[in-house]
Design goal:
By secondary structure, the protein is α/β, with parallel strands linked by helices. Helix content is 41%, strand content 16%. Bound molecules: pyridoxal-5'-phosphate (PLP). Pyridoxal-5'-phosphate (PLP) binds next to strand 8 and helix 10.
């Protein structure tokens, strides 16, 4: 099978899984955005995705995002989903639709300063280390609420919600408490902060566990390996 046919079949299978999960959760399909994580493929394959109706693309490394953004001429919305070093903010911010991976207040403040300089509004999600694994990036739930004032002081940044990576688990059901906790943290933060921060988004769920994430309220799912199976 050629690459386009394989990708189409994979996308159709993922779409069926999303539709079934939305139906089970009583949610409209339009409430969930599939972000295609392109880190395992090159720009040529990533460039095929918009033709398949996949216009939200995610990358975990800033330099790779820059290269692919330059190589793909179709209109896509880039999502930065991995660690962003502060010295890469200047070049990354103008290219991206949403940064999912704000893992420190210093990074958030750098982004806000750069957004002011460029006279644009940065859209971000705060990454939370819900599972409290010591070697994992993200703010701890305690840090999130302890420094809430820093969110109120932002001038050019819109906090659109929260993101998490669940611990790797043999059974997707084991991720449910992590996803449920992220939703509770978001609900609480939304009550405490309010506009202009929408806090509408929950970025959670990957290839193996997105059904559970949708059931727990995910609005953005980040899917890589299931989409590129047989391709990369
Ligand atoms: C790679 C990656 C994904 C996609 O994971 P798959 O299991 O390949 O679907 C999602 N989120 C982040 C932050 C990633 O780095």
């Amino acid at each position: 099978m050629d690459v386009l046919a394989t990708l189409t079949a994979n996308r159709n299978r993922i779409e069926e899984r999303i539709a079934a999960a939305c139906a089970r959760a009583g949610r409209p399909r339009s409430s969930v955005t599939l972000v295609a994580v392109t880190k395992s493929v090159g720009a040529e394959i990533a460039a095929l995705l918009p033709e398949l109706g996949l216009a939200d693309l995610g990358e975990s490394r800033p330099q790779v995002l820059w290269t692919k953004a330059a190589a793909i001429s179709a209109v896509v919305r880039w999502h930065m989903i991995g660690h962003l070093q502060r010295n890469k903010v200047e070049r990354t911010l103008p290219l991206v639709h949403l940064i999912h991976s704000i893992d420190s207040w210093r990074l958030l403040e750098s982004i806000d300063a750069e957004a002011q300089r460029l006279a644009l509004t940065a859209s971000v999600l705060l990454e939370v280390n819900v599972s409290r694994e010591p070697n994992k990036s993200g703010l701890s739930p305690d840090e999130l609420f302890r420094s809430i004032q820093r969110i109120r002081e932002l001038r050019a940044t819109q906090v659109g919600g929260l993101m998490t990576m669940a611990a790797i688990a043999p059974d997707p059901e084991l991720c449910r408490p992590t996803f449920a906790e992220l939703r509770q943290l978001r609900d609480r933060l939304k009550t405490e902060i309010g506009p202009p921060h929408s806090l509408e988004h929950l970025s959670m769920g990957m290839s193996d566990d997105f059904e559970v994430a949708i059931d727990e309220g995910a609005t953005l799912i980040r899917v890589g390996s299931a989409l590129f199976e047989g391709v990369s």
